Amino acid sequence: MADKSYPTDLKDTEWKLLEPLLVRNSGRRGKRKHDLRRIVDGCFYVLRGGISWRMMPHDLPDWDDVYSHFRKWRRNGTWERINQVLRERHRVTQGRDPQPTASTANPSRPRKLAARAVTMAAKRSPAAGAGRHPRQPSQGQAPPGGHP
Asked: pTM score, two decimals?
């Protein structure tokens, strides 16, 4: 059966970029059961399509072979390394440094959040009459007008 082409399949230029980043199993002997590019195509098919591994089309490699490669690459940091290289290449094409040089976080933000958390905790504490309206009686007091 001829391999179908899916929208999630890698283009030749994309494959040339990814292929050197994929870890080869140096302890493995003999020929691979499936082409590594088709394994990656299978990973992208499942991840982009949001389907179950077992629902992969039959013209892609077996789901368990694709999943075992995906899991191995996740555990050994291959996916993280691919993301890093692609992110750096994109930054360079945008005319920026490959690595971010400054943080964009607001330095006063943590202090403001901490102060707000303290204020909210004080408002909710039992000593401060948590959750009651100022005119509402606290527990043990008779309501206004003397009726229970």
From this structure: 0.61
